[in-house]
Specification:
This protein is mostly beta strands. It has no helices and 11 strands. Strands 3, 4, 5, 6, 9, 10 and 11 form a 7-stranded antiparallel β-sheet that branches. Strands 1-2-8-7 form a 4-stranded antiparallel β-sheet, with no helix packed on it. It starts with 6 loop residues before the first strand and ends with a strand.
Length: about 170
């Protein structure tokens, strides 16, 4: 890491009764994202984990993991992981078409605005003071492979471990 101009981010979360919101202002000296679909984590982009039960267990059995990237096909939201008991409830791994994602490129910055319906984060209930586990990383690839990431809590980038995530309380 060569400092804040190499890779850094300001991340903000929000919510209402209908959606979870994520805003990210990412500074990146070299934007590189040749990948699509499940491979987007290999280029510049965002990955975040969401634990709807705030159980923060060692394994990935009860959590979601999403990826966000500006691909050659436009902004893409990819769901890598779902809680095991939800696979029968029409929530599947893969591209998330129900989400709204806008990514704007400005010089050495990417501005991400994600609007994700709460139905995509079942069984979480969006009510004041409810809590969920959360971790987020911003991947950095300057064209020669993923060289690292900046993060808010571990548990995604090196190994998948929700026990390392932080806790968010709705206010």
């Amino acid at each position: 890491w060569k400092g804040a101009k190499d890779i850094s981010a300001v991340i903000k979360l929000g919510w209402n009764d209908d959606c979870f919101y994520l805003y990210a202002d990412v500074i990146d000296d070299i934007f590189f994202q040749p990948h699509t679909d499940a491979a987007i984590y290999n280029g510049d982009g965002i990955q975040f984990g969401f634990d709807p039960l705030c159980s923060l267990k060692e394994s990935y059995g009860e959590v979601y993991e999403y990826g966000l990237a500006l691909t050659k096909d436009g902004p893409q939201v990819w769901r890598y992981c779902i809680p095991e008991d939800l696979s029968v409830n029409k929530i599947e791994r893969g591209q998330v078409t129900e989400a709204f994602l806008e990514i704007t490129e400005k010089e050495n910055r990417l501005i991400y605005i994600l609007q994700l319906p709460w139905d995509e984060l079942k069984p979480f209930l969006p009510k004041l003071s409810n809590r969920f586990g959360f971790s987020i990383i911003v991947n950095d690839n300057d064209g020669q492979g993923r060289k690292g990431y900046v993060r808010w809590h571990d548990g995604i980038g090196q190994r998948k471990c929700p026990a390392l995530w932080g806790v968010i309380s709705l206010t």
